[in-house]
Design goal:
Family: Belongs to the G-protein coupled receptor 1 family.
InterPro entries: GPCR_Rhodpsn (IPR000276), GPCR_Rhodpsn_7TM (IPR017452), Gphrmn_rcpt_fam (IPR002131), Leu-rich_rpt (IPR001611), LRR_dom_sf (IPR032675)
Shape: elongated
Strand content: 5-15%
Largest sheet: 7 strands, parallel
CATH superfamily of the largest domain: Rhodopsin 7-helix transmembrane proteins
Protein name: Lutropin-choriogonadotropic hormone receptor isoform X10
GO molecular function, one term: G protein-coupled peptide receptor activity
Distance between the termini: 81 Å
CATH class of the largest domain: Mainly Alpha
Keywords: Cell membrane, G-protein coupled receptor, Leucine-rich repeat, Membrane, Receptor, Repeat, Transducer, Transmembrane, Transmembrane helix
Number of domains: 4
Structural class: alpha/beta
Helix content: 40-55%
CATH architecture of the largest domain: Up-down Bundle
Radius of gyration: 37 Å
C-alpha cells in the first residue's frame, strides 16, 4: 500500500491454490480497473483511496473474493453494469465515499453485507429483491432503508413479481411439505442419523434438482424487514408521505389557495389603483408580496406531495437535496421574516399616527418608508440565504424548513430567527395596547365602553391573536428542540406547518385590506374601468369630494388642499376602519353647529381622523385615523 502504483498489477500468474488472506492496494494512484484486469482468489481485496474513476465490464471475471472494498475513490462515478459479472463468492462490498450514481446489481445476488456510507450521489436504491441473501446494509440516506421496511412501495413491479413467485412456489411445495413431515416422523422414530448426514453433505447435494427445490421451499418466507439497515429512519426522515395523511393533504391545498388568492387580490387592486401611492398602501403591498411567497411555498410542498403519494421515500433524496427544496426553503424563510418585519412597521406607523394625530408634520414619509422596507428586504433575504451556504440547511426535512442544528453557528442562526420574531410580536402587542389606551383615554373610567370602542377592542384582539397563534407554537417547540428536548417529531411539525405557520399569510390580506372600506372603494373603481360594478363605483367616487353630514348635506373639504399631500390616509387598518357614524350623527342631532365643527376638524385631521369621543376631561377631542 502507498507505493505509487498507477495500475492494478496482474495477479493471475500467481501459481498457488491457496486463498490469499488480503490483497492491499490502498493509497496508490490507480485510475481505472479494466476488463479482466483482476483475477485472484482472496478473502479481502482492498483498493481504497486511489484515483479510480471507472470500473469496466467484467473487471473481476474469474476471481473469487469474499470482501471487495473500493472505499474512498471519490472520482469513481461510473461502474459498468456488468462490472461484477464473473466474480464469485462475493459477500461483502464497500463503496463508501465514492461518487457512483447507479449501483449495478449483476453479480451481487449473494451479498450479505453492503456498505455505502457517505455516497451522496446515489439517489435511487435498486430493488431489494436483487439481493437475495442480504443481512446488513450500511447506507447514506435513511430513506434508502425504507426500501427494506416497505418493499411494496419501493418497487411495486418487482414486489408483484416476487409475490407471484411465492404463490407458485407455495403451490408446488405444499404437497412436498406433507411428504417431508411423514418422512421426518419415520426418521425420528427410527433414531436415524440421515438428517445430520444431509446437513454435512449440503454442498454436494445442491447439484440435485430435487434438492434445489427442497431448499427453495424452505426459504420462501424471506422477510426483508429483518435486514439490519442503517441509518435508521428517524423523526426528521420518517418513511411516510410528505404530508402524512389526507387531512393534511387537503388542508395544505386550501391554505395555499387562500394565501395566493387573497394576497394577489390585494396586490392587483393596490398597484392598479388610480389613487396615488401612500405610505400605508406601500407597506400593504410589501406585506401582500411577502405573504404571497408563503402561498407559493405551500404550493411547492403540496405539489411535491401529490407527485409522490404512497412512496415519498423514493423521491425524498432528489427533492430534499435538489433545487426545488432549496427554493421552497428560501421562499418560506424570506416570506416569514419579511412579513413579520412589515407587520411591525405597519403597526408602529398606525400607533404613531394615532398618538400624534394633531401634529401634521410628524408623519412617516414615503421615502422614509421605502428605506425602512429596504432594510427589511435585506434582512429577510440574508436570513433566507444563509442555509444555502451551509449555515443550518433546508435539506434536513421533507418540508424544507431550516431545522438543522449541527454546530454553534447553526444554533445562533436558529436563535436569531426565534428572538427576532418574538421581539416583533411583543412590539406589535405593545403598539396595539397603546393605541387602544389612546382611543379610550378621552373617556371617564367609569363610563361603559361604546359600540365603537368594543369594535376597536375586538379587532385589535383579533390581530394580536392571529399573530400569537402563528408565532407562539413555533417559538415554544423551536425552543424545546434547540434545548435538546424536542417534544414533537416532523410528522407533528407538519400540523404546525399547515395550521399555524401560514396563519398570518392567510389572515393578513383579509384583516388588513380585503374587509376594509378603502379596499372596497379601490376595487369597485378598478372594476368600473372594465364595465363592471359601475353603480357601486359611482357611489364611492361621489363620496371622495366631501363627507355627508347627519342631515344628508355634504360638506366639501375646503381645507384639504392646505394639508400636506404625503399624509393621506393610514391605510386599511382594522383600527382605522371602525364605523363611528352613529356616534357622530347623535352628536349632530344634539348640536348641529358642533357637528359641523367636528366635520371640519375631520377634514383638517391628517389621515382622515374621525372623532371617537366628543371631549375628554381636558376638553380635547380624541381621534382615530381612517384610511384613504
Amino acid at each position: 500500500m502507498g507505493t505509487g502504483l498507477l495500475a492494478v498489477p496482474y495477479l493471475g500468474s500467481l501459481r498457488t491454490d491457496n486463498i490469499l488472506h488480503v490483497v492491499d492496494l490502498e493509497n496508490n494512484l490507480i485510475q481505472n480497473i479494466g476488463t479482466a484486469s483482476i483475477k485472484v482468489k482472496a478473502e479481502q481485496f482492498l483498493v481504497n483511496y486511489n484515483e479510480i474513476s471507472v470500473v469496466d465490464s467484467m473487471a473481476f471475471n474469474g476471481s473469487e473474493i469474499a470482501k471487495l472494498s473500493l472505499k474512498g475513490n471519490v472520482a469513481l462515478r461510473n461502474i459498468h453494469t456488468d462490472a461484477f459479472v464473473g466474480l464469485k463468492s462475493l459477500r461483502n462490498l464497500d463503496l463508501s465515499e465514492t461518487s457512483i450514481v447507479v449501483l449495478p446489481i449483476k453479480g451481487l445476488q449473494d451479498l450479505d453485507t453492503l456498505i455505502m456510507k457517505d455516497t451522496k450521489s446515489l439517489k435511487v436504491f435498486p430493488s431489494i429483491y436483487n439481493f437475495e441473501y442480504i443481512k446488513e446494509a450500511h447506507l447514506t440516506y435513511p430513506y434508502h432503508c425504507c426500501a427494506f421496511k416497505f418493499p411494496a412501495k419501493h418497487d411495486p413491479a418487482e414486489h408483484r413479481k416476487h409475490e407471484e413467485f411465492i404463490l407458485q412456489i407455495n403451490k408446488y411445495c405444499a404437497p412436498r411439505r406433507r411428504r417431508r413431515r411423514d418422512d421426518w416422523w419415520q426418521l425420528s422414530f427410527n433414531n436415524s442419523n440421515s438428517y445430520l448426514d444431509e446437513e454435512g453433505h449440503f454442498h454436494d447435494m445442491v447439484k440435485s434438482t430435487d434438492t434445489k427445490i427442497s431448499i427453495m421451499c424452505g426459504n420462501i418466507t424471506r422477510d426483508y424487514k429483518d435486514v439490519n439497515c442503517e441509518p435508521i429512519p428517524d423523526a426528521f426522515n420518517p418513511c411516510e408521505d410528505l404530508m402524512g395523511n389526507w387531512a393534511l393533504r387537503i388542508a395544505v391545498w386550501l391554505v395555499a389557495v387562500l394565501a395566493i388568492v387573497g394576497n394577489l387580490a390585494v396586490l392587483i387592486v393596490l398597484v392598479s389603483s388610480r389613487f396615488r401611492m401612500t405610505v400605508p398602501k406601500f407597506l400593504m403591498c410589501n406585506l401582500a408580496l411577502a405573504d404571497l411567497c408563503m402561498g407559493v411555498y405551500l404550493i411547492l410542498i403540496a405539489s411535491t406531495d401529490a407527485r409522490s403519494i404512497g412512496a415519498y421515500f423514493n423521491y425524498a433524496i432528489d427533492w430534499q437535496s435538489g433545487l426545488g427544496c432549496q427554493v421552497a426553503g428560501y421562499l418560506t424563510v424570506f416570506s416569514s421574516e419579511l412579513s413579520i418585519f412589515t407587520l411591525t412597521v405597519i403597526t408602529s406607523e398606525r400607533w404613531y399616527t394615532i398618538t400624534y394625530a394633531i401634529h401634521l408634520n410628524r408623519r412617516l414619509k414615503l421615502k422614509t418608508a421605502a428605506r425602512i422596507m429596504a432594510v427589511g428586504w435585506i434582512y429577510a433575504s440574508a436570513m433566507a440565504a444563509l442555509p444555502l451556504i451551509g449555515i443550518s440547511g433546508y435539506a434536513k426535512t421533507s418540508i424544507c424548513l431550516p431545522l438543522e442544528n449541527r454546530d454553534t453557528t447553526d444554533l445562533l442562526y436558529l436563535i436569531t430567527l426565534l428572538v427576532f420574531n418574538g421581539l416583533a410580536f411583543w412590539v406589535i402587542v405593545a403598539c396595539y395596547g397603546r393605541m387602544y389606551c389612546s382611543i379610550r383615554g378621552g373617556q371617564e373610567v367609569v363610563m361603559p365602553m361604546t359600540r365603537s370602542d368594543m369594535t376597536v377592542a375586538k379587532r385589535m384582539a383579533l390581530l394580536v391573536f392571529t399573530d400569537f397563534a402563528c408565532w407562539a407554537p413555533i417559538a415554544f417547540f423551536g425552543l424545546t428542540a434547540l434545548s435538546g428536548y424536542p417534544l414533537i417529531d416532523v410528522t407533528q411539525t407538519k400540523i404546525l406547518l399547515v395550521f399555524f405557520y401560514p396563519l398570518n399569510s392567510c389572515a393578513n390580506p383579509y384583516l388588513y385590506a380585503l374587509l376594509t372600506h378603502q379596499y372596497r372603494r379601490d376595487m369597485f373603481i378598478l372594476l368600473s374601468r372594465y364595465g363592471m360594478c359601475v353603480d357601486r363605483a359611482a357611489k364611492y367616487k361621489g363620496a371622495i369630494g366631501g363627507i355627508p353630514t347627519a342631515a344628508g348635506i355634504r360638506v366639501t373639504n375646503q381645507i384639504k388642499r392646505n394639508t400636506p399631500n404625503n399624509h393621506r390616509g393610514s391605510v386599511l387598518t382594522t383600527v382605522t376602519s371602525v364605523d363611528v357614524s352613529t356616534h357622530n350623527n347623535n352628536v349632530a342631532r344634539m348640536n348641529s353647529l358642533g357637528a359641523v365643527q367636528e366635520l371640519h376638524l375631520v377634514n383638517i385631521r391628517p389621515n382622515g381622523a374621525v372623532p371617537l369621543s366628543r371631549e375628554n376631561s381636558a376638553g380635547r377631542t380624541k381621534y382615530c385615523s381612517t384610511a384613504n
